[in-house]
Specification:
single chain, three-stranded antiparallel beta sheet, alpha+beta, Pseudouridine synthase
Length: about 260
């Protein structure tokens, strides 16, 4: 990086009005092509798809993974709308979070579903097992989230780039050292549920990043998108889809009893 014609380190503080020159690497976006990846489609019509994503499957291509994603698995069914590298994707799930996700099949369907998200009219409920016992049977967590100041791989409340985030939870079952919570997202920030629950002393069981690694023998976070509900953006008919816990999470839940 050059500042006013002189090379400076990344930590250099820029003075007002400085001229900055930098080399920018332009990455080519690989052409998307369908891939034979088995994904369960639980709802389908000419406008939308709702899929039950398994844990371990990345939703769309990234710098580190250009193939073998949910987008590649669904291309043959028709995805459209939004950025060209993630066609049809309305919202996302972490790689190791399982459960329900809705995708669009046209530009207009994508636009209308994004409007539902903006109006907070897309109900997203998760089941999560946490280590610890909540202090109330229900609660609302409102705390801005952004990339952590000291660790760029994490998101946290200690951030220089805060974005509003609201999470609701209700107690489903209480165990001696754990609690099963039903969580509803009002916003959809990266790692929102995991960050918010860790912040109130209830780390998600099995979470390798936010404090629950290896709990109950889990190899990933106990977080499952269990329900999606919304008014269809074209027909106004109610769409309400649920997904049971996958076997690995059901087994961990049994061990918590």
């Amino acid at each position: 990086m050059l500042v006013d014609g002189e090379r400076r380190p990344k930590s250099h503080r820029l003075p007002e009005g400085a001229l900055v020159e930098a080399d920018v690497e332009v990455l080519a976006v690989p052409e998307l092509a369908p891939a034979p990846i088995d994904v369960e489609v639980v709802y389908e019509d000419p406008h939308l798809l709702v899929v039950d994503k398994p844990a371990g499957l990345v939703v769309h291509p990234t710098r580190g993974q250009t193939g073998g994603t949910l987008v590649h698995a669904l291309l043959a069914r028709g995805l459209a709308g939004g950025p060209t590298d993630r066609p049809g994707i309305v919202h996302r799930l972490d790689r190791d979070t399982s459960g329900l996700l809705v995708a669009a099949r046209s530009e207009e369907a994508h636009r209308r579903m994004q409007e539902l998200v903006r109006r907070r009219a897309l109900l997203r409920e998760y089941l999560t097992l946490v280590h610890g016992r909540p202090q109330s049977r229900a609660g609302r967590i409102e705390a801005p989230i952004g990339r952590d100041r000291s660790d760029p791989t994490r998101h946290s409340l200690d951030t220089a780039t805060p974005r509003d985030a609201v999470t609701h939870f209700e107690l489903e079952r209480l165990f001696s050292d754990h609690a099963l919570l039903r969580v509803r997202l009002e916003t959809g920030r990266t790692h929102q549920i995991r960050v918010h629950l860790e912040a109130i002393g209830l780390p998600v069981s099995g979470d390798p990043v936010y404090g629950g690694r290896g709990d109950l023998g889990l190899e990933r976070q106990f977080l499952h998108a269990a329900r999606l509900a919304f008014e269809h953006p074209f027909t106004e008919a109610p769409v309400d889809v649920s997904s049971p816990l996958p076997p690995d999470l059901a087994d961990a839940l049994a061990r918590a009893e």
